[in-house]
Amino acid sequence: MADPQPLARSPWTLPSALAREFDPDRAGRKARRTVRDWVVDFTCFLIAVVIGMVGADAVGQNPHVSPGIAELDQVIGALACAAVWLRRRWPVGLAIAMVPVTVASDTAGGAATIALFTLAVHRPFRYVAWIGAASLAAVPFAFWLRPDAELPYLAAIVFSALLMASVIGWGMFVRSRRELLLSLRDRAVRAENEAALRAEQAQRLAREAIAREMHDVLAHRLTLLSVHAGALEFRPDAPREEIVRAAGVIRESSHEALQDLRQVIGVLRGGDTDASGRPQPTLAALGALVAECREAGMKVTLDSRVTDPEAVPAALGRTAYRIAQEALTNARKHAPGAEVTVTVSGQAGEGLTMAVANPAPPGDVPKVPGSGQGLIGLTERASLAGGRLVHGPGSEGGFHLEAWLPWAP
Q1: Is the pLDDT of residue 27 over 70?
Q2: What is the pLDDT of residues 185-216, one digit of tens each?
Q3: How far apart, in Å, are the Cα atoms of 13 and each of 21, 44, 111, 147?
Q4: How far apart are CA 114 and CA 82, in angstroms?
Q5: Residues 6 or more apart whose Cβ sits within 8 Å of residue 304
Q6: Gap between the Cα atoms of 195 and 190, Å rounded
Q7: Which has more confidence, 396 or 388?
Q8: Residues 350 and 370: beta-carbon distance below 8 Å
């Protein structure tokens, strides 16, 4: 699609009707002649004068026209040539006025031709049809009043009719070309606006995806830090082994959180891989995630019924991993001490199903800050992958989360 900007940079080389459309600064203003308009108007006036002079000479040598009528013919023709300068302001009125003028004056033939051409350029076809038909009907009457000195009556009528049809056709071609230019300009503007909207939407989706990824990645690590730091705070008299173990988990979780943060920053900088070179997690890494949770003190049971986790597509496996990661993080925060069961099943062509469930916690549930954004993000992630996710209280007072993701064969 052509860009309209190059045309908009030189509005004075366009017709005034197009200049108002292509130049935003001229839109809504009163139509003023451009440099091109002045050149075209002067050329039209010159053509009308030249044709009028030829007509005046022919009238003067026509034996069927008296000298007085010839002088009157020339005066009317001169006034008609002067009226050509009004063709842009009143194209319809000028064309209508030229119908009787051409009957009374052969010298006005050039001005009448210019008026008919202007009408075809600036007005719809219905005006051209009526006024052109009237002009064509006046031709036989004009040659009946003043027969041509050289051409037979019928030949003169046919020649004039062909000339009028050619002028009208040329004018309509110019009009259609201008309308095409305006249509192309509108389409180019719409295409640019749609491209800008698509780019803005893509940026918004990218920001949402990065925010979702950051939440899923860092919430897991920071929850580990919170849980073990809370244990150290509320049990300062714990055995040394437990304190050392909790401190080790805090240190390891902090290190992993920094690595994950570097990964997200690498994505923000425009790369698909992070600066540390760590691969994105897939379904095959689910076992390592469960082992990490067990080391942190959780009771997790993994029931994987997928024959070959390595065969799961990377995008599908990453989505499933993030769902399990967020579900385990929520269970650690809101159901400490409860045993969590993670079930993964499915195969290519049927889809991948993941369920994470836990019963009610055995003791009091600590108040942990949270707004439910993680579950909202998981629902959006599953929806973007073409799947679905449901969650809610379990039958025995716990919590149950189940997701289904499409797995192409």
Answers
A1: no
A2: 888 888 888 888 888 887 777 677 666 666 66
A3: 13, 17, 25, 43
A4: 12
A5: 286, 287, 344
A6: 8
A7: 388
A8: no
Type of residue numbered 357: A
Neighbours of 270 (CB within 10 A): 6
**279, pLDDT greater than 70:** no
CA 18/CA 181 separation, integer angstroms: 8
More confident of the two residues 366 and 26: 366
**Structure tokens given for 228:** 């073990």
The answer on pLDDT for 294 being more than 90 is no
Give the Å distances, CA to CA, from 327 to 6, 249, 366, 399: 56, 20, 17, 10
**Six token digits for residue 286:** 């689910």
Q: Which residues contact 386 (CB under 8 A, 6 or more apart)?
A: 405, 406
Contacts of 254 (CB under 8 A, 6+ apart): 221, 225
Residue ranges covered by each domain of the chain: 5-196, 282-409
| Percent above pLDDT 70 for the chain | 77
pLDDT digits (tens, 9 = 90+) for 39-55: 888 888 888 888 888 87
Alpha carbon separation from 405 to 39, 234, 385 (Å, rounded): 69, 41, 7
Residue 145 pLDDT exceeds 70: yes
Q: Give the span between the Cα atoms of 329 and 97, in whole angstroms.
A: 87
3-state class of 346 per DSSP?
strand
Q: Which CATH number among 3.40.50.720, 2.60.120.260, 3.30.365.10, 3.30.565.10 corresponds to the domain 282-409?
A: 3.30.565.10
- What tokens were used for 104? 């009374």
Higher-pLDDT residue of 276, 168: 168
- Contact yes or no for 399/358 (Cβ under 8 A): yes
Report the side by side order of strands in the sheet with 299-304: 299-304, 339-347, 351-358, 399-405, 388-393
DSSP state of 27: T
237 SS3 class: coil
26 within 8 A of 19, measured Cβ to Cβ: yes
> What is the pLDDT at residue 394?
79
